[in-house]
Specification:
The chain has 147 residues and is α+β, with helices and mostly antiparallel strands. Helices cover 29% and strands 28% of the residues. The protein has 4 helices and 5 strands, in the order βαβαβααββ. α2 crosses α4. The longest helix has 16 residues. Pathway: Cofactor biosynthesis; tetrahydrobiopterin biosynthesis; tetrahydrobiopterin from 7,8-dihydroneopterin triphosphate: step 1/3. Involved in the biosynthesis of tetrahydrobiopterin, an essential cofactor of aromatic amino acid hydroxylases. Catalyzes the transformation of 7,8-dihydroneopterin triphosphate into 6-pyruvoyl tetrahydropterin. Its EC number is 4.2.3.12.
Length: 147
């Protein structure tokens, strides 16, 4: 048999969770928050059915034919996304958001950080969070700006 070069692939899996939140920054006055976030600053909050697509990247294992076992990915997503976020008030039930505004961008960062703790090193490629059909955030972790 001739040696074969490694084949790389990306594998994605999605989950949907429901949560509510209020867009409000402690760094701004009530008036500034209302101007910046509009109806999303409603003191009683508002809810979404978020769709999250997690993509991992790696070599296709020549024996299993997989980048990663989907059952394991499903379990990691359950622990990193569903358990802390599903049917929660993000601002009140998730400690991370007590100091961080619960924007979709920050939800994506939260999910990325949680998955990084569980997945094999270097396999996580991107996290997509669909807040609505029109609003989607893609986070790849390595994209930071030094100020």
């Amino acid at each position: 048999m001739s040696p074969r070069s490694a084949r790389l692939a990306r594998l994605s899996r999605s989950v949907t969770f429901s949560a509510c939140h209020r867009l409000h920054s402690k760094s701004l006055s009530d008036e500034e928050n209302l101007k910046l976030f509009g109806k999303c600053n409603n003191p009683n909050g508002h809810g979404h059915n978020y769709k999250v697509v997690v993509t991992v990247r790696g070599e296709i294992d020549p024996v299993s034919g997989m980048v990663m076992n989907l059952t394991e990915l499903k379990e990691y997503m359950q622990e990193a996304i569903m358990e802390p976020l599903d049917h929660k008030n993000l601002d009140k039930d998730v400690p991370y958001f007590s100091e961080v505004v619960s924007t979709t961008e920050n939800v994506a960062v939260f999910i990325w950080d949680n998955l990084q703790k569980l997945l094999p090193q270097g396999i996580l490629y991107k996290v997509e969070v669909h807040e609505t059909e029109q609003n989607v955030v893609v986070y790849k972790g390595e994209e930071t700006i030094v100020k």
